[in-house]
Amino acid sequence: MAIFDEENNRLSIKLVYYGPAQSGKTTNLMRLHDILRPDLKGDIMLMETANDRTLFFDLLPLGFKAPSGLLIKFKLYTVPGQVVHDSTRKAVLSRADGVVFVADSQRTQSTNNGEAFANLEDNAARVGIDFDRLPLVVQFNKRDLSDILTEAEVLQRWQAAPWPVLFSSALTGEGVVETFHALLNRVYDGLDREFEFQNRHLLSREAFAAQASGQIDRQAY
Amino acid sequence: MDTDTGHDFERDLNLQDLLLGIDKQRLATALQALLGAPIAIFDPRGACLLGASEPTNDIPGLPLYGELEPIGTIAAAVPQDRLKAAADLLKLLLHTNARYLMASDLHLQTQQDDFDELQRRHNALEQSEQRYKALAENLELRVKQQVQTIEQTQLKLYEAEKLASVGRLAAGIAHEINNPIGFIRSNLTTATSYLASLDKIGALLPTCQDIAALKTAWQREDMDFIRQDMRDILAESISGTERIAAIVKDLKGFSRVDETEWEEADLNVLIRQVCNVAAAELRGKAELQLDLGALPLLHCHPGELGQVFLSILLNAADAMGAQGSIRWRTAFQDNRIVIEVRDTGRGIAEADMPHIFDPFFTTKEVGKGMGLGLSVSRNIVQAHGGELTIASRPNTGTRVTISLPVKPGS
Questions:
Q1: In A, which residues are within 8 Å of B94 by CB distance?
Q2: Where does A8-220 sit in CATH, by number?
Q3: Using the beta-carbon criterion (under 8 Å), do A87 and B1 form an inter-chain contact?
Q4: What residues does the Histidine kinase domain cover (chain B) (predicted)?
Q5: pTM for the predicted model, two decimal places
Q6: A 44-83: CB under 8 A from B
Q7: Which of B67, B91, B97 to mutate to test the interface with A (most CBs of A within 10 A)?
Q8: pLDDT score at B368
């Protein structure tokens, strides 16, 4: 749940990139850090071991000021995908306002995707998140690889699910901003209800997404 | 959810937090040496965390950024670009420290959560262990109570079965006893009338002068006959009381079911007693043959074995259609006492054979048997370490064999 700090007139929104090990969660964050140009962008904090495995989490802070003067701060986290780090995953997921589930498009990874998604559902329940109401988007990453599920196959499998499904290639930055926008779009409704974005802070849905991403620097990649 | 653990890795880190673990003196000295001027670092409220103690307006300052927002100021009397370089250097240092602080807070937080979870599971396990323990104790107690109930019920059934078979005999035994009592009473009445005759002779004695009158009176009262008859009826009465005594003795020997003590007993004697007690029941139905071989004494419960013998004997009697025979044979072989009872009765139907030892199974009409005789008998024989087997051929007869081990030295 977003935390409103009255003293500093600041709203902190927590977004979590969840998914199986090595599906590209950290890469998503790195590309966003490169591409996005919001008013405020902090340094990306990476905590990875020598073999590119996230140990605790990665963190990318972003922010902008709403017309009302409210500082809207985003904290984008990744969780460690390896099965053994479940306690860490649980702690990072705690109080999330929205989740991107980063799935691996490779055919060989279907089982891992399924298990990670079930783990997300379990951990959400454990930290008191109502999974049915949690803003969630699903991203099928690594579209640049061969031997991947076709878009038609993916869409058919997720046909009955209520979440938007996006395709990306985080390595090249393709689809990363679109995924972020899709999540912002889903997060907006709840925040608008709770904090009166439109009425009190004069912040429309479109402005919310546009300001969060700022001037997108497509030249970066 | 986890904010109460005290290790919230997401908490906002202020400048003081971020300087934790950094040797401030060395940092200040290094920065001063690089810049060639004294430096100072202040938090947003203007409190000095490093270097000079007071913020001064004439010394230029630059904001220090945390994640997104300024968390303090660095000030030194140097050109802007050099001050910015110092601020960048400091920021790199603080960023690295932030990484460490967040990671360690998260680590402590997950450790605490894991520990709490472990504790919770441990408590749950302990509770369930307690529950199972209580359940187990309770179960043991209840099983004990049930066993007690079953044992008591079984004892009552044994009692009932015993009473039923003894009850069946009661009429016959009553007749056996009544018969001698009848002639003993008749004899005593006669003896009383003989006493009247003796009185008459006795009345003459004080006045009588001559012996002839006495002789006349003696002959008138037929005292010679009386003397002889008196002897006869007294002998008859004595033998009658002996018969009664014998019946009572057999009955007593047989009815000692209540005596729970084991003792040495001669099974041949026991069989004879049972046959005597049941004599009236058998009369007119079956001829009894006893072919009893020499047996060693058996350490046993005579009352219970007597009940077994009676049950078998009464079953045989019930199986008789026309006049038949029941033959007892006992033998001692291979350290076992073998008792065989053959009857020439109607036998057991093949369909009934699998059920004959089932409690409450009976082919007799209602009121004639409880269906416990064989079931109880087999239990008693097994309690003596023995076996009870039955072979039967319809319309030919039945053979019951009891084999009892004689323990050496008993």
A1: none
A2: 3.40.50.300
A3: no
A4: 172-408
A5: 0.61
A6: 45, 47, 55-57, 59, 61-63, 71, 73, 75
A7: B67
A8: 64
Rounded Cα distance, B72 and B46, in Å: 8
Task: Dig out the tokens for A64 from the structure.
Answer: 């902008």
Q: In this complex, do A94 and B106 lie within 8 Å of one another by their Cβ atoms?
A: no
Whether B263 and B407 share a structural domain? yes
Give the bridge partners for B339, in sequence order: B330, B402
End-to-end Cα spacing for chain A:
33
Q: How many domains, in total, are found in chain B?
A: 2
pLDDT, tens only, B186-227: 999 999 999 988 888 888 888 877 888 888 888 888 888 999
8 Å CB contact of A128 and B95: no
CATH, residue B113: 3.30.1370
Q: Which two tokens stand for residue B169?
A: 């005999």
Phi/psi at B322 (5° precision): -85, -175
- Strand A71-78 versus strand A10-18 pairing type: parallel
Q: Do A47 and B99 touch (CB under 8 A)?
A: yes
Question: Mean pLDDT throughout B21-46?
Answer: 90
A111: tokens are 């089982």
CB A52 within 8 A of CB A132: no
Final residue of a structural domain among B104, B123, B142: B123
Range of the domain at B361: 259-410
Cβ(A50)–Cβ(A39) below 8 Å:
no
Does A1 contact chain B (CB < 8 Å)?
no
User: Is B263 found in the same domain as B119?
Assistant: no
- Given B78, B99, B123, the domain boundary residue is B123
What number of C-beta contacts closer than 8 Å exist between A and B?
54
User: Does residue B409 have a pLDDT over 70?
Assistant: no
Q: What is the ipTM of this complex?
A: 0.88
CA dist., res. A195 & res. B49, Å (int): 37
Cβ-defined contact of A61 to B69 (cutoff 8 Å): no
* B208 three-class SS: coil
The CATH number of the domain where B273 resides is what?
3.30.565.10
CB contact under 8 A, B103 and A55: yes
Task: Note whether residue B173 is domain-resident.
Answer: no
- Torsions phi, psi for B39 (to 5 deg): -120, 160
Distance CA A75, CA A71 (A): 13
B349 CB burial (10 A radius; 0-12, 13-18, 19+): exposed
Q: Which residue's entry shows tokens 């009940």?
A: B307
Hey, where are the domains in chain A?
A: 8-220
Measured between CA atoms, how close is B154 to chain A, in angstroms? 58
3-state secondary structure labels for all residues of B3-24: HHHCCCCCCCCCHHHHCCCCCH
pLDDT tens, position by position, A14-61: 999 999 999 999 999 999 999 999 889 999 999 887 777 888 999 999
Record: contact A45-B102, CB cut-off 8 A: yes
Position B186 in a domain: no
Which residue among B68, B106, B107 places its CB closest to the CB of A42? B68
**Beta pairing, strands B324-333 & B286-292:** parallel
Chain A nearest C-alpha distance from B22 (Å)? 20
Q: Is residue B213 part of a domain?
A: no
